[in-house]
Amino acid sequence: MHTKSILIFTLLAGMLTACNLPGPATVIPTETPIPPTPIQLFPTPSLLPTEIIIPPTAIPLPPEQAVLARAGEVVQALKNKDMLSLAGYVHPVDGLRFSPYAYVKSTDLVFPSSQIPGSMSDNTLFTWGIYDGSGLSIDMTFTEYYAQFIYDVDFANAPQVAVNERIGKGNSIDNSLEFYPGAMIVEYHFPGFEAQYQGMDWRSLRLVFMDYNNTWYLVGIIHDQWTI
What we know:
Helix content: 10-25%
Number of helices: 5
CATH topology: Nuclear Transport Factor 2, Chain: A
Structural class: alpha+beta
Shape: globular
Mean pLDDT: 82
Low-confidence stretches: 1-13, 15-30, 38-58
Order of helices and strands: HHHEEEEHEHEEE
CATH architecture: Roll
Strand content: 15-25%
Largest sheet: 6 strands, mixed
Number of domains: 1
Distance between the termini: 156 Å
Radius of gyration: 44 Å
Number of strands: 8
């Protein structure tokens, strides 16, 4: 009987081995733990060195180009009767002087920039100077003066434009560069309109700019035409 029990036990052990049933628990040695890779910290974007890129439009223009660009905006504001926009170009200290003819006088009217926006609706009669030939005083509202001595023709589409060079030449002395030392003057010129006048019906508008705190401001508007 004892021999039979041993035989049965041996058979059962063999069957368990053949079936890959787990035997007694076995302790498997573990590998040495690998420490976690430390996290590499980077400075925040605000602390990184930055590169300042200046756009091409910020490159300073030569004075002539800068003034021509300003003059183009001014003459467009005059064409549109946009006095509010015009006021933004007026010299903040010297104001804007209006000269009906080429010869600039110290007695020519000067408007501060604050007076420009409401000028078209101002019914005040101003004395702007005297008429060439007759010697009578030029007594007009701003609107009337604008129509005869500022934008009497479409200067925004003038065929000739010059900087610091007089195009229209008549009997009046042009003292603008002497009166405004260091100024840049842009002239818009029509050589004439009707052939019968042989060019004597020419018109010019000169816009005078002075540099103030690195900005070219409008200090004078000069109207010029053939005079007696």
